[in-house]
Specification:
Length: 760
């Protein structure tokens, strides 16, 4: 098989060498437009996992890499005049030039033809003359651009500027050095990659860069030129860290990082590899690492599926099927890491110990428990700072005060609609459902959305609080929780708005009732989905009447004995639909800009807060993004949270989406936590308002990580409590914790110890 490789970087060279090694009969040619020793950058980083794959596939290359690699286990975080060290991380780095030399020699030994200083022939000609074209031509891939219609690429640039540099100072660990300057926060990422050199990357938000370096930066540079004025300024800023060492430029200039994604990595006999197919921000790992892992997978797929045309299609599909999920996971982590650094100014108030934990766990790949295995001393020191005393238990089991209400731990059972009421009346199902969650150890158990009127229900199965009979039924549930558990119980009050009069979830979620329904209402006559009913636009009289329904329900909830009231202003229900510009097109005082869109929800909140006992807390659930172009932005989410907090909310429960049916959420582990994180660190801490994180938080490890990093004050979990009503108690048992905040109900105490195994 004739194989053309466009790009002589590590990914292209390694793919060429591996393919030729697997089958010497292949005719493999590489075209590289630069000279053999002409490369950007300094050191490249590899994880132990990547090196293990290289060792298995090509022991000779692995041995050569090991001879030139520098290894470290520690991460040093320089911040606030302190250096906090975390160990056990296990990475290696080496000179990019050394790596290229190794791979060039490997290609020569295998019989691969490599043309340096030679642009590749036109793609059409290569495709016609070769069986396979491997495009490893980088983030600015001409191949990808030439076939853009097929590959469907997306390139997203970050909000920060960075510069890649080298130094002859050998850093003793992977180093984060974060500094507050008169212009804003500047951070340095550095790591050793050889016996006499380290890589240094300096990064800052675009706004900080404009103030600090914009006036002197040279952006219009010829290839190979360096921004000498900026390099000198960086050297002056970090003079103490460099300790007299030089900063070295290599095509060094200020850049914004492009995150590349593509709909597919293959088109006929063309396949993308490395940065041509995908990029991941440098703060989470090396593009070289991903490219070499791609090369390993592509070569193995070609070997396993043969060289015939039909098998080539199978091989390329197998390559993409194997690598795409891994790359997608890496890109999600890289996105989280990139955004953390872009918003690093939100965290400079933190204590150095918490800041160090936060920076290390920023991508959500490294967690509390993972760090405890790597470096138990570091985690113990962070917990000691967080709790204020040694050995007091995991963060999730520390008490918390929501307003004036004490909670035994930081776990909340999230509000989850059960669609199991009759005429709005909660029954035995709700007693068992909520009672079991309270017995299961959570600090706070929330009801489903309890509707303030029959017309405010989502479905015929939704609960309400608009009759005395419903109030009495809720009192029965509350009394059970208070009498038998240490949990508090909260009610979430809401009105379905334009999402009402629909089928039960398992019969067709958000689908209108075919009969027996009611007219739906909203701020504007805009349906939730094309299949949804068009809501009637609410008049001033309607708005006053619904406000009074919320007040009446709040009075009923107080008489019933609920500990907490949450106002539901999320998920596209009535109050949420006023907040979003996608559902509120009013031209009166309740529409227009954010101030107008906030007016009615705040009027309802103020009325409810006045009706609710002053000593009992009120929280508000919001959708921090609509996951749709033109919807609520993250900046607006902070403003919304601030407005409710300034009106007296004791907590903000930060969810996202479900405002429009055409949303495109970025699902993933703890995917909504960054929104809670921003609100807590930008607004909640300042105003003393608790922030609750929710959304795909599924493990006690996630909860501990979120709390210890300061991303939220409480964590709300829904589905894990459906899977295991005793999730909180089991989390304590799995962590070996039996102290305060994790007390088992006395009748269940025997279950707190793992039962014996084997025959009696």
């Amino acid at each position: 098989m004739r194989i053309a490789v466009i790009g002589g970087g590590p990914g292209g060279l390694y793919a060429a060498a591996l393919v030729k090694r697997h089958d010497p009969g292949h005719d493999v040619t590489v075209w590289e437009r630069n000279a053999a020793d002409d490369t950007f950058g300094f050191g490249v980083v590899f994880s132990d996992e990547t090196l293990g794959g290289i060792e298995q596939a090509d022991p000779a290359v692995y041995a050569e890499m090991q001879r030139h690699a520098a290894r470290w286990d520690d991460i040093d975080v320089h911040y606030g005049g302190e250096v906090i060290t975390s160990g056990g991380h296990g990475f290696s780095a080496m000179s990019r030039k050394e790596l290229l030399a190794i791979l060039q020699r490997r290609c020569a030994e295998a019989g691969v033809v490599v043309h340096f200083r030679t642009p590749a022939p036109e793609l059409a000609a290569l495709r016609a003359s070769h069986d396979l074209v491997i495009a490893a031509d980088g983030a600015n891939s001409r191949t990808r651009t030439a076939c853009a219609e097929a590959f469907d690429p997306t390139v997203e640039h970050g909000r920060s500027r960075y510069m890649w540099l080298g130094t002859d100072r050998v850093l003793g660990a992977f180093t984060f050095d974060v500094r507050e300057t008169p212009h804003g926060v500047v951070q340095l990422h550095g790591y050793p990659y050889g016996p006499g050199a380290s890589t240094v990357i300096v990064e800052m938000h675009e706004d900080v860069w404009q103030r600090a370096f914009g006036p002197v930066a040279a952006l219009d540079l010829a290839p190979g030129e360096n921004d000498e004025a900026s390099i000198a300024a960086v050297a002056e800023l970090y003079a103490d860290l460099l300790d007299g060492a030089k900063l070295i430029g290599n095509n060094s200039r200020w850049l914004t990082f492009p995150t590349v994604t593509t709909a597919t990595w293959r088109h006929g006999n063309v396949v993308l590899l490395g940065d041509a197919a995908h990029t991941a921000h440098f703060s989470i790992g090396s593009g070289t690492k991903l490219a070499m892992e791609d090369a390993l997978a592509l070569a193995a797929a070609l070997r396993d599926h043969g060289a015939e045309h039909a098998d080539l299609e199978t091989a390329l599909a197998a390559y993409e099927d194997e690598r795409r999920p891994v790359v997608a996971s890496t890109q999600r982590a890289a996105h989280a890491s990139r955004e953390w650094f872009e918003d690093i100014g939100h965290y400079v108030h933190q204590h150095p110990q918490q800041f160090a934990f936060n920076i290390i766990t920023r991508s959500r790949r490294i967690t509390h428990d993972n760090l405890r295995m790597r470096d138990p001393g570091f985690v113990a020191a962070t917990e000691r700072w967080f709790i204020g005393e040694p050995d007091a238990g995991p963060p999730m089991f520390q008490p918390f005060r929501l307003g004036s209400l004490p909670l035994r731990n930081r776990v909340v059972v999230s509000a989850m609609d059960m669609y199991s009421a009759q005429d709005g009346l909660p029954g035995d199902f709700h007693l068992v459902h909520l009672g079991s969650k309270a017995l299961g150890g959570a600090g706070l158990v929330m009801t489903e959305m309890v509707c303030v009127s029959p017309e405010g229900r989502i479905t015929l199965g939704c609960t309400g609080l608009y009759t005395r009979e419903q109030e009495a039924a809720w009192t029965r549930v509350i009394d059970f929780v208070h009498a038998n558990t240490g949990a508090k119980i909260g009610v979430q009050l809401g009105h379905s708005g334009r999402k009402g009069s629909t089928k039960l979830m398992w019969e067709g979620m958000d689908e209108p009732l075919p009969e027996g329904g009611w007219d739906v209402v909203g701020p504007s006559p805009i349906p939730y989905s094309p299949a949804g009913a068009v809501p009637r636009e609410l008049t001033a009289a309607d708005l006053a009447a619904i406000r009074d329904q919320f007040v009446a329900a709040a009075h009923g909830a107080a008489r019933a004995g609920f500990d907490v009231l949450e106002l539901h202003c999320a998920h596209g229900y009535l109050l949420s639909s006023f907040l979003s510009p996608l559902s509120n097109a009013r031209t009166d005082r309740y529409g227009g800009d954010l101030t107008g869109r906030l007016r009615y929800p705040l009027e309802v909140f103020d009325a409810v807060r006045a009706a609710w006992p002053a000593e009992r807390p009120v929280t508000v659930r919001i959708s921090a993004t609509d996951w749709h172009v033109g919807g609520t932005s993250s900046d607006e989410a902070v403003a919304i949270a601030r407005a409710f907090a300034e009106h007296g909310a004791d907590g903000i429960d930060v969810s996202t989406g479900q405002v429009v049916a055409a949303e495109k959420p970025a699902f993933g582990r703890s995917y909504q936590t960054p929104f809670a994180d921003r609100i807590r660190n930008e607004m909640g801490r300042e105003l003393g308002t608790a922030v609750i994180a929710v959304g795909a938080i599924s493990s006690w490890d996630d909860v501990n990580s979120i709390l210890l990093a300061g991303r939220a004050d409480l964590c709300a979990l829904g589905r894990p409590h459906l899977y295991d009503p005793h999730w909180t108690l089991h989390a304590a048992a799995e962590q070996g914790y039996t102290g305060p905040g994790a007390e088992w109900p006395k009748p269940f105490a025997a279950g707190s110890r793992k039962p014996p195994t084997g025959r009696a």
